[in-house]
Design brief:
The protein is built from 6 helices and 9 strands. The protein is of the alpha/beta class.
């Protein structure tokens, strides 16, 4: 899970902003832990101390990413490096964002199950006429993910291989938190 950003548009550490009395990052981590995701790796950077505090007591691996200011691509690389170190033979990696409030264990399991059928090496969510996170990438795409730079997510990898992407419907995927007003949306 990516939770390293500064949340500048939010105006404060959005990873610990609460939805239904629970920090966004904790909510996302609990969804991942309740799914087939294993291990659950959380990349932290900006606001590291309070983000880690929000994750206290959860069985997650925390990656302290000192280069978080280099953008989302560097956080993706940090997460991949942790997976490669712990699971050198991992078949793939599923990326989710701490600020997507509607992610559920069932959604994450649907992505994994679609990947496990063997007919798709890329599985992403479909919403708002786009494809995006959460998304699962087979090992063969790790090198491309490692090449990402700046404040770009993995959408360019999905776009470059659009014909290979299997999609899981996630209409609520458009509901992410960028500003405090986003917390008020249904």
């Amino acid at each position: 899970m990516l939770a390293a950003g500064a949340g500048t548009r939010f105006g404060s550490p959005k990873q610990v902003a609460e939805v239904d009395g629970e920090a966004l990052v904790r909510r996302a981590a609990r969804s991942a832990l309740a799914s087939k995701c294993t291990p659950v790796v959380v990349v932290v950077g900006a606001h590291q101390g309070i983000v880690e505090l929000a994750l206290q007591g959860l069985d997650v691996q925390i990656v302290r990413h000192t280069g978080w200011e280099d953008g989302m691509a560097s956080s993706i690389r940090a997460g991949l490096d942790a997976v490669a170190a712990d699971l050198p033979r991992a078949d793939g990696a599923l990326f989710l964002l701490a600020d997507q409030v509607a992610v559920t264990p069932a959604l994450l399991d649907a992505l994994i199950e679609r990947f496990e059928t063997g007919d798709a090496d890329l599985v992403a969510c479909a919403y708002d006429d786009t494809q995006g996170p959460p998304a699962l990438f087979a090992r063969k795409f790790f090198a491309e993910l490692e090449e990402l730079r700046g404040d770009r997510g993995a959408r360019s990898v999905l776009s470059a291989h659009a014909a290979e992407v299997a999609l899981v419907d996630f209409p609520a995927g458009t509901h992410d938190v960028d500003t405090p007003a986003d917390l008020e949306r249904d």
